[in-house]
Amino acid sequence: MRLTWAQPEDLLAHELVQSAAEGRDVAGIRDRWADAGGDPDPAVSGAGPVPATAELRGLARALLDELAALPAPAAPHEPDGWDAIEALLPPAPPPRAPGGDRADRVRGAWTGRAAGCLLGKPVEKIPREGIEEILRSTGRWPLDRWFTAVGLPGDVAARWPWNRRSAPTSLEENIHGMPEDDDLNYPILALALLERHGRGFTTDDVAQLWLDHLPAGRVFTAERAAYRNILDARPAPETATHHNPFREWIGALIRTDVLGWVSPGDVRGAARLAWTDARLSHTRNGVYGAMWAAALASAAMVHRTADEVLDAADAVVPPHSRLAAAVRLGREAAREGDVRAGLDRLHAAYGGLHWVHVLNNAAVIAYSLARGAGEFGPSVSHAVTAGWDTDSAAATVGGVVGALRGADGIGARWTEPLDGRIATSLPGGEQRIDDLAARTVALAATTGTTERSTP
Fold this sequence. Notes:
Layout: H1 8-21, H2 27-35, H3 54-69, H4 82-88, H5 102-120, H6 128-137, H7 154-159, H8 167-170, H9 182-197, H10 203-213, H11 221-231, H12 257-261, H13 267-278, H14 284-300, H15 306-313, H16 322-334, H17 339-350, H18 358-372, H19 376-385, H20 390-405, H21 412-415, E1 421-422, E2 431-432, H22 433-447
Antiparallel strand pairs: 1-2
Helix pairs in contact: 1-3, 5-19, 5-20, 5-22, 9-10, 9-22, 13-14, 14-15, 14-20, 16-17, 16-18, 17-18, 18-19, 18-20, 19-20
């Protein structure tokens, strides 16, 4: 058995990249690893192609510890503590009263998140050029509907294989409800968190809920590392840093939509909840991504346009952070030229990052929201054809636009195949979207938006 996102030899290659990004001098450790026969280049998937020997694995563990002990330059513009983060933020915009039918917005958010995720599932991890070739060869370029294997030439299928787990349930010819996905498991888990603890939940409460409800085999990247650290009795926020090179990836961003949906118009309050959750597994920009996603979700409950949502969410991101720069780039690219030119610009800036990193995917989310201008199909399609983490980016985009348009405004093409159902690997099994929406509305009505969560 080769466990993904966990083997020391795989973690080391990713940690060399992450530590370098944090300003550590990793050259000597990288050379020692390569001289010993280790591969210093991270695998695209969760595990490298060649199993390590016991000796090489032992060296990887030792070098991970050495990397952690290396000094890193101070990063005053990218702090981890809430007080230090809040001190950098502009004045919080006053909470805005919900507009329109709140229940319909929440149903639209859940439905849109599911539909966006489902659209991106079969091509997760396939690069941008492969996605385009698949679509052109099946007569579906530019993307405006579900992917299909009907008419897909064998050589194209071999060159760009579908996501193995997702294709049997996420192609047009076989969709029957929303299949299980971590991008929907986490929002469902967030409902349970709030129902159990309210807005005063702590990071330890999040960890306990993971142990109680979240199958270890259905967590990935930073969450898998944090899960291991929880079981090793490491306290937060050490859970986010010990042998966790994925700490600035997208995992925390996909967990926080519900925290925004129950905080309509209170983007700062939503961001504080997201920080409490995210610090279990992420640092710096990985945490800011979660805060930003929660703020997007919060703003989508009360505003009318995607640009208004993006403007409101800017208020929770440290302005000189790398995440803020990624969001700005995404919005700027959306205003210039055609879609290809805009996505070219994003890939020129972030093409060297792993496909699950938070920065490239945040730029895609910002681009897709701004370029899609509140239209559901174009917005989620841009997020998918951009490549990188297609299902996660499109899920976030779909949740925002779904809230703006309401459930009926998404369009039957995207809603009917879902049949109002979401499968999950969490306790309780399959969920109805209407039930999840009702629980979300009840939480927004009863938990309030002013109580502060604590670590």
